[in-house]
Amino acid sequence: MTDTSTVSTRLDEDVLKEIEKLAVEMNLDRSALIRKFILDGYQHAVLQRDIMLVHRGELSIEEVAERTRTSIGRIIEAARGMDVEIGSDASTLEHEKRVLEKMLGKTKKATARLSDR
Question: Does this model's pTM top 0.90?
Answer without folding.
Answer: no
